[in-house]
Write a structure and sequence with these properties.
Helices cover about 40% and strands about 15% of the residues. It has about 425 residues and is α/β, with parallel strands linked by helices. The radius of gyration is 22 Å and the shape is globular.
């Protein structure tokens, strides 16, 4: 027996109104059709900890967490208090607030590659600045990339509107395949400014892979840049570079850096960062001190608590529990990814069965009060409790049982291209994921 559908009457009405006045109805990367249309809420009302309420009064245990922006939990009192102090003092002046220095010093102490930093507002700003800096330092044009790096011309996932010459200067390789990178650099190495990559998305790096990428890049005179938008402050306080023991030339951070407040940062070796003076980078809101204060409070709380080990423990419990439930019910599925960023894939050899299993599973989990993204890996936050983990597994167990029954009776969900998994597995040549920066 399937669960009754939730009412999204107000959410749907707001979206119909938005479609008349907002291009796409909402931010493109978060459009409703990236989920299961009709089964997910569109508009949030408020959140606390790991809980989210939509405008129709439905309550969800959230494992999406604004795509990794929330690491401590919604409305963390320490972070919000720091932001409110800045608001009350005034936060956008023609002068810089001292909290900028405090945050910069904290980041240099925290991130292994950071000898200097430069602040931006969004992930796309920062990855684009990193690429420009690499071109300045090396005097070369071409970029080798793997993963999702934002929406700017050099890394946009879709070709319309992007000059052909820009696309021709960007190359890619296969994840966990050093031979594919070595072949690429053998052919283009003297023209490559940098190798920029996410350290992982779903598939963890094989032993020695990230270090091998760094060595190949530097052997060919290119910079090695880690895009740590997602991994930063999730895998370790110092990011994936600390967790995996590989120090890049430059690295980019955002998302969990400030527990939801809008900012990003480029970090790297001093002699490289100083050369930003040779170009011009800025932001309309560059004096905004609110996210800087929030970032200081976030990092301070991550340092003085066991928040990051908690992410690993809860996330591993979720991965292990999902795999046990899938095996118990006989549903062809596998929980994958690293513990702070888990995901579930359906693995039947028949694509129709995979699609049906996915649609039924996420329909059931959403109706029973979970927010689990069907097409993007999830995130764990410090506010997730053991009780909430147990509740999640109970709901997922019921959802697996429903999948089993629906498949046994011959039900097949219609295949919708936009509901196919878009996360990077590392096996596709292009390797981009589906989230926004």
């Amino acid at each position: 027996m399937t669960s009754p559908a939730l009412s999204f009457e107000r959410s749907d009405a707001l979206f119909r109104r938005a479609q008349q006045i907002i291009a796409g109805g909402t931010t493109q990367g978060k459009a409703p059709d990236t989920l299961l249309p009709g089964e997910y809420p569109i508009y949030a009302d408020h959140g606390r900890g790991a809980q989210l309420w939509d405008v129709d009064g439905n309550r969800f245990l959230d494992w999406i967490l604004a795509y990794g922006i929330i690491v401590l939990g919604y409305c963390d009192p320490d972070v919000d208090a720091a932001a409110i102090r800045e608001i009350r003092q005034g936060f956008a002046f023609p002068l810089t607030r001292p909290v900028q220095n405090e945050l910069a010093e904290l980041l240099v102490q925290t991130i292994p590659c950071a000898e200097m930093v430069h602040f931006f507002k969004t992930g796309s700003d920062t990855t684009t600045a990193a690429v420009r800096l690499a071109r300045i330092v090396t005097g070369r044009q071409k970029v080798v990339r793997w993963g999702y790096h934002g929406w700017h011309d050099w890394c946009c996932l879709r070709e319309p509107g992007i000059p052909k010459a820009v696309r021709e200067d960007v190359l890619t390789f296969r994840y966990n395949d050093l031979d594919s990178l070595e072949d690429l650099l053998a052919r283009h190495g003297d023209r490559v400014a940098c190798v920029i990559m996410m350290p992982l998305e779903i598939e963890p790096p094989a032993p020695g892979f990230l270090q091998g990428v760094k060595e190949l890049a530097q052997r060919h005179g290119a910079l090695f840049i880690l895009d740590e938008m997602r991994s930063g402050f999730h895998l370790a306080l110092g990011g994936a570079q600390e967790h995996y023991g590989v120090i890049p030339d430059l690295a980019t951070f955002s998302k969990a850096l400030s527990n939801g407040y809008a900012m990003s940062v480029l970090t790297g070796r001093r002699e490289l960062m100083r050369r930003l003076d040779e170009t011009y980078v800025s932001s309309t809101f560059f004096t905004d001190a609110i996210p800087m204060a929030a970032a200081v409070a976030t990092i301070d709380k991550l340092r003085r608590t066991q928040a990051i080990p908690h992410l690993w423990r809860i996330g591993q419990g979720l991965l292990d529990g999902l795999n046990r439930l899938a095996a118990h019910t006989g549903v062809a599925a596998e929980a994958v990814g690293v513990a702070p960023m888990p995901f579930l894939t359906f693995t039947d050899s028949d694509p129709e069965v995979r699609q049906t299993a996915k649609v039924v599973f996420y329909r059931e989990t959403t109706r029973r009060g979970l927010l689990l993204h069907p097409n993007h890996h999830w995130f764990v936050c410090a506010a997730h409790t053991d009780r909430e983990l147990q509740r999640t597994l109970e709901i997922c167990g019921d959802a697996f049982e429903t999948v089993k029954r629906e498949l046994a009776r011959g039900y097949r969900a219609s295949v919708r291209p936009h509901t196919e998994v878009t996360v990077a597995t590392g096996r596709a040549p292009a390797g981009p994921g589906g989230a926004s920066k």
